[in-house]
Amino acid sequence: MANILLTGAAGFIGSHLATELTAHGHFVLGIDNFCTGRSINLDGLKTNKDFDFLEHDISKPFPIACPVSRMKFDWVMHFASPASPPKYFAIPIETMLVNGEGTRHLLDFAHASRAKFFYSSTSEVYGDPLVHPQTESYWGNVNPIGVRSIYDEGKRYGEAITYAYHRAKKLDVRVIRIFNTYGPKMDPEDGRVVTNLLMQAIRGQEFTIYGDGKQTRSFQYVSDLIEGVIRLMDVDYNQPVNLGNPNEFTILELAKEIEKLTGKALQMTFRPLPSDDPKQRKPDITTAQRLLNWEPRVQLAEGLKLTHEYFAKI
Ligand SMILES: NC(=O)c1ccc[n+]([C@@H]2O[C@H](COP(=O)([O-])OP(=O)(O)OC[C@H]3O[C@@H](n4cnc5c(N)ncnc54)[C@H](O)[C@@H]3O)[C@@H](O)[C@H]2O)c1
User: Fold this and answer.
1) CA gyration radius for the chain?
2) CB of 139 closer than 6 A to ligand 1?
């Protein structure tokens, strides 16, 4: 059993991960400041004896008086960061800080605690990729001053400082690059494409499609991601690993899939493509397949059904 400090525990992915880690017999101390997370995501965890929670902004170090600063952990897992564009556009500086200063404080904390460090990076480090599909060796095509740079460059800095600690202080690190992930516990107002279209279908509103809808995305169901994270913890591998579903869909195909699911034909409104929106994104998951014997199992129709049920319920 491991002692794990997990940031972003009230978020979509963090709350699933906390639940799964405790199910594997670990103790999890979840940390969050609720800037994009929701306390409803902690509902099932509040009564779990292997879970505890601290409200804290991890862009600041733990105060000396805080008991956490004296606790020892086996893992520090950093999953805190706004992840949906409308959310990080609303708090741009906080987004840079949580991946910059936040990552640095947690690296120091992991080093002092002799813990391993796990960083959740993103496919956004590839920017608007010129290589397709994206392998971990691709360096990316990112606009360093564009509107999305707060997130993309924040994550690139987060990766860079993680590897600085790995090289200079021999810290044992894991880095994953997460591709579009969806599922229950997402914030229904997070503005991501799956959420937007599912909520518009539930409300009987027109679908909003940005651009011509022919840009592609690959959508990973959350349980597949969590499985990949847990497997990577057991493997001695320090380089970045892509975790995503390589099945590629255009946004129009996604909309059609949701129409099929809900049985409602909805009108589509087309809006201009946001600035620096990537035209295509697809993970090369050869590393995860070879290293972790992992591949996504939940197909889009099934994952959308489970997510739709969750949104309809809440
Ligand atoms: N969902 C995806 O498709 C996706 C894709 C790529 C990468 N990621 C990464 O996975 C992680 C989790 O994403 P998510 O989709 O669950 O997003 P989310 O917004 O649902 O969760 C992030 C959590 O971090 C918390 N947080 C943010 N800043 C904080 C701070 N300074 N101190 C404490 N807590 C803070 C938020 O309150 C929230 O609970 C993020 O690092 C994100 O960049 C997600």
Assistant:
1) 19
2) no
Closest CA relative to residue 93, chosen from 54, 13, 149: 149
Q: And the tokens for 206?
A: 């027109």
Which of 43, 81, 174, 180 for a ligand 1 pocket mutation test, highest count of atoms within 8 Å of Cβ? Answer: 81
Task: Classify domain 193-216+248-280+301-313 at the CATH topology level.
Answer: UDP-galactose 4-epimerase; domain 1 (3.90.25)
pLDDT of 281 higher than 90: no
Q: Are strands 220-221 and 268-271 parallel, antiparallel or unpaired?
A: unpaired
Q: What is the mean pLDDT of residues 120-129?
A: 95
Q: Cβ(175) to ligand 1 under 6 A?
A: no
What local confidence, expressed as pLDDT, does residue 305 receive? 97
Residue 182 among the catalytic residues: no
Nearest to 294 by CA among 283, 278, 280: 283
- Amino acid code (one letter) for 314: I
Q: What is the pLDDT of residues 43-68, one digit of tens each?
A: 999 999 999 999 999 999 998 889 89
Task: Write down the architecture of domain 3-179+222-244+283-297 according to CATH.
Answer: 3-Layer(aba) Sandwich (3.40)
Among protein residues, the one with the nearest Cα to ligand 1's atom 44 is 83
Say whether pLDDT at 247 is over 80: yes
Q: What are 121's strand-pairing partners?
A: 177
- Domain positions in the chain are 3-179+222-244+283-297, 193-216+248-280+301-313
**Cβ 120 under 6 angstroms from ligand 1:** yes
Query: Quick one: 254 exposed, middle or buried, by C-beta within 10 A (0-12, 13-18, 19+)?
Result: buried
